[in-house]
């Protein structure tokens, strides 16, 4: 019994740990560190509303403390009822007008920025048009004017408006890149619009912000901002078929026999699953596992048993217990081929 009674001693420790852990993680996944004009406008509204709330709290506490001290009963005081101000027109006007003024200070810029940030830039010739489709549990990005499509990595040019059309292929998700702008829900059968803009070349973390299933917490993606020259080079590279080396031809055949029905490897990316064109240039496997020459084991684990990495994923397992069993050598050949998709 004493053990449970002493647990309260750990409450300050847990509070301190929570405070310290709030500072962990990438600075590109914080709405308090904007890296684009949309995020800066939204941070201004957050600061404005927080400032008004803090001001109201301070004023209330100052009045409360003043009344507590000024009208406290002192030793020797008689039980005298102070002068009553109930029904004072002056006070009624003051505490009616002040909240109205505060609401106007908050409402006017909020409405103004809401209208501004909901502008449709799809027809803007200077903007890059991207159609975003959310799936359980991955992201598809189509660039209709450029004739390309990719998955998991949204590549954009810096200092340009990115006009987004956002929808869902299955359940409700939510597109969110904290450093570049607020979230937007994705709904089946509906298309929502928003736009983003990045100040500089960097990699920004994005997440699904709506509970969507077993691997909701793993439904991550990246927004990679590049200079105009680098972005154009990326587009040109994605449109060219990958040069497959001779030692990866066996893996290419394994891919055609087992994976091509779901995954495309062309610029347009027409397929049931993520487009794997340019897969070897991506930083992550399935959005959650690091990839690269030293991380082939991660790719192996994903191919053999994807549900152990991302529960609820629709990709079948190709391991010994999978419906589509591949021999170990076939898996190695497939990995070699995927690593050649530059």
The rounded Rg comes to: 28 Å
CATH homologous superfamily (4th level) name of the largest domain? Cupredoxins -  blue copper proteins
CATH architecture of the largest domain: Sandwich
Low-confidence stretches: none
Proportion of residues in helical segments? 25-40%
* Spatial order of strands in the largest sheet: 3-2-1-5-8
The helix-strand sequence is HHHHEEEEEEEEEEHHEEHHH
Q: Report the top-level CATH class of the largest domain.
A: Mainly Beta
| Whole-number count of domains | 2
Topology, number of strands: 12
Sheet with most strands? 5 strands, mixed
Which term fits the overall shape?
Answer: elongated
Structural class: alpha+beta
State the separation between the terminal residues, measured CA to CA.
Answer: 63 Å
CATH topology tier name of the largest domain: Immunoglobulin-like
> How many distinct helices?
9
Strand content: 15-25%
Give the averaged pLDDT, no decimals: 86
In words, what does this structure look like?
This protein has 342 residues and is α+β, with helices and mostly antiparallel strands. It has two domains: 25-240, Cupredoxins -  blue copper proteins (Immunoglobulin-like, Sandwich); 246-338, Cupredoxins -  blue copper proteins (Immunoglobulin-like, Sandwich), CATH 2.60.40.420. The protein is 36% helix and 18% strand. It has nine helices and twelve strands. It has helices at residues 2-5, 11-21, 37-70, 89-117, 228-239, 249-258, 296-304, 306-309, 328-338; strands at residues 128-135, 138-143, 148-151, 153-157, 162-168, 173-177, 181-186, 192-196, 203-208, 220-226, 284-285, 289-290. The strands form three sheets. Strands 3-2-1-5-8 form a five-stranded mixed sheet. Strands 4-10-9-6-7 form a five-stranded mixed sheet. The protein starts with a helix and ends with a helix. The relative contact order is 0.11. The chain crosses the membrane at residues 50-69, 90-115. One of its GO terms (biological process) is ATP synthesis coupled electron transport. Residues 20-121 form the Cytochrome oxidase subunit II transmembrane region profile domain.
